[in-house]
Structures are given as structure tokens and as C-alpha cells.
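Hello Y.,

Per our agreement to keep a running log of every chain we model this quarter, I'm adding this entry. I've kept the format consistent with earlier entries: sequence first, then predicted structure.
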Amino acid sequence: METLDQLGLKHGTDQASSFHDYCRTMDELLSPRRSLPVVLMEQGVLGGDGLRMWADYFTHPSCWIIGVDPHTFDRQPIGDSRVVIFQGSQCDVSLMAEIRRDYGEFDWVTDDASHFARAQQQAFGIIWPFIKPGGFWCCQDLHSYAAPELCDGPENIMAFLTRIATEMQGKGAKAMGRPEPSDLWSDIDTIMFRKGLCVIRKKA
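Predicted structure for the entry above:
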């Protein structure tokens, strides 16, 4: 069985080791679910190479692989009935609620869309409640934090994510590590950073 990276290289996505090298990390996290009926969303479709990769990776006939992009998808059709593409914004509350209603909560959501800091933070706030317990939110291309034209708010994406990582530690119990009612982000289990990538896992 081909790895996620091998499939990424096959389909020419920049998530593969030929460019960003995100597939290795995503494969480590998702391989236990490969044969399960997952619901996955990719925000930012571009030419659909990532959607083709995911369609080859997940084998269960009841998977849903959902793409969201504000631009019209005019490339060659994916050719898999499990792949559904919506034209719209990752920050459209009504659209995200509609998708969640029709397809269920998400096992995995990738933010590879506009990379504008304000949109990334708004989109996280919208989609996080729709992620299953034990599911993942993945933000790609974190190097974009350093592009001045993409920092359109008080916090760039790295400042936002590192603030969450700090706040989730809490301030109670005299720093003994016990959960306190005042703790923020109590439903976050893990935040993982690697070059260009952050993955947040919801508590199961």
C-alpha cells in the first residue's frame, strides 16, 4: 500500500516531499484511520491535487473528502463520488454549518486557503466546534506569518497559535498541572509544530 507521500508525489501536490514535505507527518497521524469512514475537509483546493491524493489514500467507501475554495474549480474532475467541492469561503459560517449538517463532524480539516492571518483565525473559530473528539485541525504554510501583506490583524498566525499553546497550559492549581475550571482551550489535547505546519488534536 502506498504511503501518503508516495500518493502526494504521484498526484503532484506541494504537500509531498518534493516541496513542503507535510505528507510524512499527516500520514503518521492518519494512518490508523485509513480504512475508516472519515470525513476530511481541505480548505484551499487549487487544482485538486490534494483531493486526489486523499481519495487514493482513504479506502472506505463511506468516506467524505470535501474541498472548499472561493474560486471555481475548472480542472479535470476528480472522478471519485466521495469527493465533493464547494465554492465558497472558509470563513462562511453558513457554508461550514451546512457542510457539517450534511456530512457530519470532521476527522481532519486542513487550512491551506488564503493564508491571511485574520481569515485563518476566524476560520479556526468556526470549524473547531465541528471537529470530532480525537479529530485534527491542520494549518499549513506557517512561514506565511512573515509575509507583511498577509498579516492583516493584530496577531499573525504564529502568534495566534503560540498564544493558544500557552493559554491551554492554564494558570491554576499553583502550576501543578491539574485542570482548573478557569483553564482555556480545555478541549485541546495536543498542539504539534513542525516546519511549515501546525496540527491541533481535539481531546477524545
